[in-house]
Design a protein that fits this description.
Structural class: alpha+beta
Strand content: 15-25%
CATH architecture of the largest domain: Alpha-Beta Complex
Oligomer: single chain
CATH superfamily of the largest domain: Creatinase/methionine aminopeptidase superfamily
Distance between the termini: 41 Å
Radius of gyration: 25 Å
CATH class of the largest domain: Alpha Beta
Number of domains: 3
Shape: globular
CATH topology of the largest domain: Creatine Amidinohydrolase
Strand order of the largest sheet: 4-3-2-1-5-6
Number of helices: 20
Length: about 600
């Protein structure tokens, strides 16, 4: 019997508790002289995954999704969620107490403009709102005739009596052979970027960037090996790393003390004020820095430079050692995937598997590598119509049996010490209908379009996005998510700043790792997504080329389900690509698996071209 150790399937939502908790919060707001308050799904770093002590939105409303905002007034309350979570929020939240507002219909700011009474004092926690977020809130509150108030101490925390303690997972030192660059050299590069941009210091508020800079990892949040921490890097002098000392072993402390001062996070505010003294210009990452730090800088006479952190681009472009680790991780993961796919092919037609069974099996095959540290996100395991829910997360309440003659979508990933993986395959159980084969093949053609793309240096993801959509567009179809996101090296599976999407404005650079995941979703019927990870690499040598060219190297090694492919829809070049990819999978993964899996793999990767 397979078991999932890194994922749970219980739905802890308790809509009935929302009314009582809302009443407690309103009483606390009244005690503080506030007429309203905003509760974002966020921690002080704007992390995608947050520790239990920062799940304020879930505690208050019952909503467990990864993005959302609650707006609480004296007489009204709303939770604003994007299209991924409209149905989930309606099921998890007490809709008699909270209005569920789709983001596509109105933003939190527009809701406030319409509902906040004139003269109201509306509160926010400046640790949980970015500089840009505060500016938007201030404009909305002013438009409603109210005033925005930064609170000292979150009122939710005051009434959340059994709030979990902050995490204290040990900080670990990254193996230099996997990091590929020593922390002093990274710090020198950061300082050079500060000098070039005429900045006096940088506050690193994104723990992913702190981890990359100092070559450390941790375990403070699920699915990502993060030590929650901060850093200040001055243009001159030693940086300071702010991390709870209880997380540091003597060896870790000694190693880190060679490159930085070590301080408790409670000292961050004072350190920021000191760095800003004398009119210094301090860069705050506009995406992650809390507005409280901007206020401290300005109060100390400094100047806030809100913009992208220079660390983000540095960590996105992996060095040779990091890429070697990613390749090794994907080989290992590919072998586990082959074992899983062979197992699924044998068991699914029996009609006894459930979505949870599939998640547990895949995680088990990965654990049996002996190298799995965690999954990189909760697996998306969608049978039939559940596969059409783009960010579906199976629970005991929604767990569906895998049926015959339908499609099954499995999107999953792993965290290994040498690399992070993310892969999606759509599998046929029984026989795929002609429509399914048509849609699958159009998605595959888009995937191949990205994988085969050759593009000049300086090209942004927005310029490539249509390569993945054109064959769907030709049939009047599309998908509503981006085509690809960045992926870290034993860090976040969703890493910025580059992405392949209509909104991807950051140029792609050598060494970046991005996903390639076009899809198609027919509500109530099935979903299709085909995802590999790709390295941005040197392009081919072209005679007479006037620009430096880049291309993609595919990392992921797992067969696409041949039973869902309609070869007549593929061009000779596309057929050649899929056959060459499958030959590579067969050649690289075959020697790593058992005899039975190897036999399955031979059939699963047989050539399509006649």
């Amino acid at each position: 019997m397979f078991e999932a150790k890194f994922q749970t399937f219980s739905d802890a939502a308790a809509p009935a508790l929302g009314t009582a908790r809302l009443k407690l919060l309103r009483a606390e707001l009244e005690r503080r002289g506030l007429d309203g308050f905003i509760v974002p799904r966020a921690d002080a770093h704007q992390n995608e995954y947050v520790p239990p002590c920062d799940e304020r939105l879930a505690w208050l409303t019952g909503f467990s999704g990864s993005a959302g905002v609650a707006l609480v007034l004296r007489e009204e309350a709303a939770i604003v969620v994007d299209g991924r979570y409209t149905l989930q929020a309606a099921a998890q939240v007490d809709t008699a107490s909270f209005e569920v507002v789709p983001l596509a219909e109105t933003t939190p700011e527009r809701w406030l403009e319409k509902h906040l009474p004139a003269g109201a004092h509306f509160g926010f926690d400046p640790w949980l709102i970015t500089v840009e977020g505060e500016a938007k809130l201030r404009r909305a509150v002013a438009a409603a005739g109210g005033s925005l108030v930064a609170v000292d101490g979150n009122p939710v925390d005051a009434v959340w009596l059994d709030r979990p303690a902050p995490p204290l997972a040990p900080v670990t030192l990254r193996d230099p052979a996997l990091a590929g660059e020593a922390a002093p050299d990274k710090i020198a590069r950061i300082k050079a970027a500060l000098a070039e941009q005429k900045l006096d210091a940088l506050v690193i508020s994104d723990p992913h960037s702190v981890a990359w800079t100092f070559n450390i990892r941790g375990g403070d949040v699920a699915f990502t090996p993060l030590p929650l921490s901060w850093a200040i890097v001055p243009r001159e002098g030693r940086p300071t790393l702010f991390v709870d000392g209880r997380k540091l072993s003597n060896a870790a402390r000694d190693s880190l003390a060679q490159v930085a001062e070590i301080a408790e996070p409670v000292l961050l505010e004072r350190a920021v004020e000191m760095a800003a003294g004398g009119g210094a210009t301090i860069r705050l990452d506009q995406a992650t820095a809390p507005s409280l730090l901007a206020a401290r800088i300005e109060a100390a006479g400094g100047k806030v430079s809100a913009g992208p952190s220079p660390v983000a681009l540095m960590q996105a472009a992996k060095n040779a050692a990091e890429l070697a680790g990613m390749r090794a991780a994907h080989l290992r993961d590919g072998a586990a995937l082959a074992r899983f796919l062979a197992w699924f092919d044998a068991e699914a037609p029996k009609g006894v598997l459930t979505e949870i069974d599939v998640v547990a099996a895949l995680e088990t095959f990965r654990r049996e590598t002996g190298a799995l540290k965690d999954v990189s996100f909760p697996s998306i395991s969608g049978a039939g119509p559940n596969g059409a829910i783009v960010h579906y997360r199976v629970s005991e309440a929604t767990n569906r049996r895998v049926g015959m003659d339908e499609l099954f979508l499995i999107d999953s990933g792993a965290q290994y010490e040498d690399g992070t993986t993310d892969v999606t395959r759509t599998l046929v159980v029984g026989t795929a209908s002609p429509e399914m084969r048509d849609r699958f093949t159009r998605v595959l053609k888009g995937h191949i379009g990205i994988a085969r793309a050759v593009f000049p240096l300086g090209t942004a993801g927005s310029q490539l996005d249509s390569f993945a959509r054109q064959h769907l567009w030709a049939a009047g179809l599309d998908f509503d998510h981006g085509t690809g996101h960045g992926v870290g090296a034993y860090l976040s599976v969703h890493e910025g700043p580059a992405r392949i999407s209509k909104l991807g404005t950051v140029p792609l650079a050598r060494g970046m790792v991005l996903s390639n995941e076009p899809g198609y979703y027919k509500t109530g019927a099935y979903g299709i997504r085909l995802e590999n990870l790709e390295i941005v690499a040197d392009g081919p040598a072209v005679a007479g080329a006037e620009k430096t060219l880049l291309a993609f190297e595919t990392l992921t090694l797992a067969p696409f389900d041949r039973r869902a492919i309609e070869p007549a829809l593929l061009t000779p070049g596309e057929l050649a690509w899929i056959d060459a990819y499958h030959a590579r999978v067969r050649g690289e993964i075959g020697p790593l698996v058992d005899t039975a899996t190897r036999a399955w793999l031979e059939a699963a990767t047989a050539p399509l071209a006649g």
